[in-house]
């Protein structure tokens, strides 16, 4: 039985490339032979529609085969896992009803740990090497739930003038989470939507390199139209066009994430 590592992908700034990063890193891990479970924690369903067309995604929602149902009824997540069609890669779909999850969690006992409890049996089985959770671009009770259920946090940051906005709040929030769940560690910051021709890319890079206590992944993902074509086909780019620049970069980022996890587990 292998150890299951849970990683949250979160940033309170919208447009950071968070979902695309989570989707492609998870797919890249699976293509490298790892068993991976994705959890779509956002009401926008973007992670879900990274693998299914809109009709199928809405079908899961209508059938109650979603994360929202599991959380609301505090059920084992094993019953809500569906296959993506890519070997070794499964997903727990989301629902637009996640828009009310903050309200639904409010009255629950130990509300910060609801997701942790729903994941207990999945983790105990040790079937998955990695569980990757896509968080919504907010800071609140639900995101705290996600972080409490995770051992590591990856923060995707868009390489733009607005990309760093709110990052300080993100770090402050992480410190709050650690009071409830001390095991949480920031694994690293991943730069996305990078354009090396732009002056602000270098400024973003220098700013992130100088943040105390934050590891910046060596791999950054550049702007690539192949990502949009892949999204239009409801596929991650690492499966849609493996030879594209962004597919190679996401694969390298996945390798770096796994290396960082292994290094921390050894220490």
* Head-to-tail CA distance between termini: 21 Å
Strands of the biggest beta sheet: in what spatial order? 3-4-2-5-1-6-7
What is the second-level CATH architecture?
3-Layer(aba) Sandwich
How big a fraction of the residues is strand? Answer: 5-15%
What is the fold-level CATH name, i.e. the topology?
A: Rossmann fold
Structural class: alpha/beta
The total tally of domains equals 1
Q: What is the makeup of the main sheet?
A: 7 strands, mixed
- How many H/I helical runs? 12
User: What's the helical proportion of residues?
Assistant: 40-55%
Q: What gross morphology would you assign?
A: globular
| Oligomeric composition of the shown chains | single chain
Number of strands: 7
What series of H and E elements makes up the topology? EHEHHEEHHHEHEHEHHHH
Please characterize this protein's 3D structure.
The protein is α/β, with parallel strands linked by helices and 267 residues long. It has one domain (5-266): P-loop containing nucleotide triphosphate hydrolases (Rossmann fold, 3-Layer(aba) Sandwich). It has helices at 18-31, 54-62, 67-73, 101-106, 114-118, 120-125, 141-148, 167-180, 199-209, 225-232, 237-240, 245-266, and strands spanning 5-9, 36-40, 82-86, 89-92, 130-134, 152-158, 185-192. Strands 3-4-2-5-1-6-7 form a seven-stranded mixed β-sheet, with helices on one face. Helix 8 links the parallel strand 6 (152-158) and strand 7. The mean pLDDT is 91.
Please outline what is shown here.
The chain has 267 residues and is of the alpha/beta class.
Please supply descriptive tags for the structure shown above.
267 residues; alpha/beta; 7-stranded mixed β-sheet
């Amino acid at each position: 039985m292998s150890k299951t590592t849970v990683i949250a992908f979160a940033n309170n700034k919208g447009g950071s490339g968070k979902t695309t990063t989570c989707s492609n890193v998870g797919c890249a891990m699976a293509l490298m032979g790892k068993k991976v479970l994705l959890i779509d924690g956002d009401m926008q369903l973007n992670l879900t529609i990274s693998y299914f067309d809109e009709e199928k995604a809405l079908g899961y929602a209508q059938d109650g085969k979603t994360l929202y149902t599991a959380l609301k009824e505090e059920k084992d997540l094993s019953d809500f896992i569906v296959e993506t069609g890519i070997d070794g890669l499964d997903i727990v779909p989301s629902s637009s009803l996640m828009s009310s999850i903050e309200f639904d969690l409010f009255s629950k006992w130990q509300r910060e740990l609801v997701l942790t409890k729903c994941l207990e049996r999945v983790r105990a089985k040790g079937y998955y090497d990695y569980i990757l959770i896509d968080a919504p671009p907010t800071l609140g009770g639900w995101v705290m739930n996600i972080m409490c259920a995770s051992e590591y946090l990856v923060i995707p940051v868009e390489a733009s003038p607005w990309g760093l906005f709110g990052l300080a709040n993100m770090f402050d929030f992480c410190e709050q989470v650690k009071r409830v769940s001390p095991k949480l560690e920031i694994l690293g910051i991943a730069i996305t939507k990078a354009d090396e021709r732009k002056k602000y890319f270098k400024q973003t890079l220098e700013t992130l390199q100088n943040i105390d206590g934050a590891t910046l992944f060596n791999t950054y993902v550049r702007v690539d139209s192949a990502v949009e074509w892949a999204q239009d086909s409801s596929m991650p780019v690492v499966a849609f066009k493996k030879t594209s620049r962004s597919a190679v970069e996401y694969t390298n980022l996945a390798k770096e994430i796994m290396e960082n996890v292994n290094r921390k587990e050894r220490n």
